[in-house]
Design goal:
There is one protein chain. Helix content is about 45%, strand content about 20%. It is α+β, with helices and mostly antiparallel strands. The protein folds into three domains: about 90 residues, no CATH class; about 160 residues, Alpha-Beta Plaits; about 70 residues, Double Stranded RNA Binding Domain. The strands form two sheets. It has an eight-stranded mixed β-sheet with strand order 2-3-1-5-4-9-10-11, sandwiched between helices. Strands 6-7-8 form a three-stranded antiparallel β-sheet, with helices on one face. Strand 9 and strand 10 form a beta hairpin. Helix 1 crosses helix 2 and helix 2 packs antiparallel against helix 3. The longest helix has about 35 residues.
Amino acid sequence: MRMDNKLKDIQKRATEVENLMNSGNISGSELTKLSKEYSRLSELLPIISDYFQIQRGISDAEGMQNDPELKDIAFEQLGELREVLPEIENKLQLALLPRDDADDNSVIMEIRAGVGGEESALFAGDLFRQYRAYALRQGWKVEIIEENATSLNGYKEVIFKIDGSGVYGRMKFESGIHRVQRVPETEAGGRIHTSAASVAVMPEAQDIDVVIEDKDLRIDTYRSQGAGGQSVNKTDSAVRITHLPTGIVVSCQNERSQLKNRDFAMDVLRSKLYEKQRLEQVNSSNTSRKSMVGSGDRSEKIRTYNFPEQRVTDHRIKLTLYKLDDILAGGLGLDEMISAVISAEQLEQLSNINQL
């Protein structure tokens, strides 16, 4: 009964939020906040409606059992509805799990080559193209903010934005160390080399999430660096921003406009400060826990891409898929792996709640 009351409160709140949004008396940051809340509630409403419909069906069928002419029909309906009820209840439990406020946000992603020299840079390039292809298949927009490319089509570092609804909720567990095992093209002896690249996924922060004072910033401009030719500006359009209280430094030189580079750099700085703030809140909470897949530790090895065996293994959930080419192409294999990690996290949350 307590669950039913909670679900009715959610339905009531959804109506309240909708009326507030349509009143014309709300604007700015408050409207943005209400829009996010309503989007979340809208996902719950169809499941809640199905739950109550099944409950009413069971109640009606139980009442029909007293009628001799309807008893057989009622018995059959009860069996069907009671079989479906646990499935809806489980779906409802998962939908009601505590949700990260940033799940609906776009993301800033950083991919950096690690140990392994040029082979690591090539792998960093593979990962960037994998996520770019996956994002485009989801209908999201991808925009490079900063890149440090190598002559062999790899990246020492690439920072990019994936813009869309619910991107962080989908991509947040991709943070960590990704390892590759393959024979480099430069390896004459055919030996398998192991190298790695790090991936960081940060929710894009809004002005209401992080307040940055002008006095806390040091902004330097310089001439962009590149391979030469048209890619190098002849003006000081590149921007480097230092956040003095934290020592965080961000830079951007991809655009010819200094103003655009500054805006991109501020986006990255805001997201880094937002992530830092969120991690500090988690670490200071007595009820916080590090989950199996969501520790947020960027130094943790999370996935191995083995080319000779055409397999990709996620070490957190012990899942191996022999779909390496499809995964690197950002196809259904990557979607399957991301979904499996998210499901494992949800089931762990559910288990912890049931143990309380």
